[in-house]
Amino acid sequence: MKLGLINSAWLGTSIDTARGIALTKEIGFDSIDIFADPLEITAQERRLIRKSCVSAELPVVSTVCCALGIADFNLPVRAFHVSRAKAYLDLCYELEGRNLLLVLGEYIWQQEVIAPKDQWKWAVQHVRELAKYAQMLGLEIALEIEPFHLSIVNNAALMAQFLEDVDHPAAKANVDISHLALAGDSADAIAKLAGRIAHVHLSDCNGKVHGDLPPGRGTVDFPPYLQALSDAGFSGTVSIELEYSPEPDKIVDWVREAYQSTARLMNGLRP
Fold first, then answer.
1. What's the distance, Cα to Cα, between the start and end of the chain in Å?
2. Chain mean position to CA 6
């Protein structure tokens, strides 16, 4: 497995895009994921990202898209989110990445107004459409397991079912280890997704709420999950997710700590 960083770690700090990419390489990461909205950034920013990654010899693995309206009950809203996600896939292709990390939304109105089966159906339909587009570009969709109560896909079993319903080879899972822990899924649950894992996120939490902490600052027992990923045949990239550091002036130390603690964990895996 390779160790990467999502560049959202630098958001809210004094470190700009180019410097953040350079620091990611200097600290020791093998790759980077890009969190940038293609509908918001300029052509100059797109080129800066690409040139900075090339200059740092830091390959892009994933672009990160939150498409929270992809299962909305309004067709124009769903169509916008699909179109926007395709723009993210185009950016991933431009950056020579491998997958689009896609975050789906939640059931609205506590599942009391719009039938949950319809929201599930719309999400399946549109993810299949995005998977077809991704395949055309030589890319994959990596759907993230979100641990929140009303998330459409909030545990490994639901992810397995969702991928079965989408039924497209380019649609796969992103396994976020702390999200599995928060959802109450043990490491054994990863076996349900064997052969269908495109990407992995890693961060720590306090065991109760979402945290995005450096490993070791929370309660997640990482070794069983990492070993289960290896046993399931996953050999891709594990990307550290750190966002909104409580001490933005110390973000470099925060990222370096996360790199070192995660590298130790990964080095301890058995073959």
1. 11
2. 8
